[in-house]
Amino acid sequence: MVRGSKMWEKLIKQVAGIVVLSTQVWQSASAQSTAPSEKLLMHCQQFQQVYDGISQQVITPDSATRAFQQAMLGLRETVGKDSCQTGTAGTYVYPLRGQLPRYSIGSRGRGYRATGFDLFDSDVRGSHPAQDLFIRDGDQDELDDRLGQPIDVLAFTSGVVVAMETGWGPNSKMRGGNYIWIYDPCLDGLFYYAHNKCVTVVPGQWVRAGEKIGEVGRTGYNAFKERSPTHLHLMFLRITPEGLPKPENTYTWLSGAEVVH
Ligand SMILES: [Zn+2]
Prior knowledge:
It is built from 6 helices and 9 strands. With 261 residues, it is α+β, with helices and mostly antiparallel strands. Strands 1, 2, 3, 4, 5, 6, 7, 8 and 9 form a 9-stranded antiparallel sheet that branches. The chain starts with a helix and ends in a 6-residue tail after the last helix. The structure holds zinc ion (ZN).
């Protein structure tokens, strides 16, 4: 369940490298012009460990709840509401580049079912507190049928990347596949982007709404199966004052989101 500290050392170097390489991009986001603090990376690591423990079912729901609360209260405190004042609040960019919400949101948004959801107990099934956003991929090669290219996954809102998976393989039972978790301090909530073909961000990295974070794919235990059309699974969890996750439907935000080509 606990990832090696080697991986984190590597990540910290990677993040530092990205910040150096993209100074121009970062300059416009005044509060975010420096490399992520060790404190931020520590809370990201905490979050990753809890989530790994939950998905691999090696942590009890009770201890998962407590560890999640701790990680979230830490993140909230470290990231702070201040980072929200950069003028990014209320900006929603549709997470599939060049795709129109009304053609790509599954079942016109009726796929959202929050009843019975428990983030801390992966034995509980049946709920789907998320929206599935589909691409045209009849031959299931993870490329858009008309463009012959992957479709970029864009950050729906601004925030900081807190966890991710990049090593999913067809033999893995993990349902989210290559996923990304992003904490949005303005909404005080977490976005979860699942089934990506690849992930192009790292924990501790700030992203603005519309920035590329990955590509739509078919990773994940069920998403990989033939009966599943290629899609992005997008979930939003509002964080309560106690640091607990509460799913919310993103349909209205998605329908009105800006489409980026
Ligand atoms: Zn889904």
